[in-house]
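Weekly modeling sync, notes
Attendees: S.R. (lead), two postdocs, one rotation student

Agenda item 3: backlog of single-chain predictions. S.R. asked that every request posted to the team notebook include the full sequence so nobody has to chase files. The rotation student volunteered to paste the first one in as an example of the format we agreed on. Action items at the bottom.

Example entry:
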Amino acid sequence: MTDVSVPAVSDPSQPEAVLGRRALERLDLLLLTLESLDLNGGESTLWATRQLGFETVFPNRVELWKRRCHNPLRRSPRRGSLAAVETEALIRILCTMADRLYPFLHQLLSSREPAELTDQRWALLNQRLKDLIEERMNLRRGAIQRLLDGQQAMPLQRQLVLTLALAAGPGGVDRLRASLLDPTP
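Predicted structure, as returned to the notebook:
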């Protein structure tokens, strides 16, 4: 489980992560993937926010939603960029949720599970993620069309789930931050 005793987000010794466009897109897609894995994903996100003490950064679900809408792939994106404190809070929330859902992430990625069971799990994830994407994203964008295309979607979804699995556990925050700040696609 993610260590909640880490220094506060506003601590000047913490790295200040200001995300570019691609990183914002990826962070939001990772949060969408978590929502598709957890039927109560929105409530779980709020729970993680409170659990980590980020009520001052995201006092309610609307403020959390507004920060996630900085993703340019959204149906109604917000202009500007996230503050470093908001970025760091979203990264920590995502890692906490990934940590909580790690057993399911492990089952999806495991080669020891029966193939038919794994295929059913991936199909369920694919359908939930597709529904969320169609509901919230701009369907005219090429990146979104690739996520909805049957053949191109699977490797992209697998990469999202793998990233979530790597974001879980000790050091997950640092791994995710490094992944998001990496300029290579």
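Discussion: group reviewed the output briefly. The chain has one domain: 21-178.
Action items: rotation student to repeat for the remaining queue; S.R. to check formatting next week.
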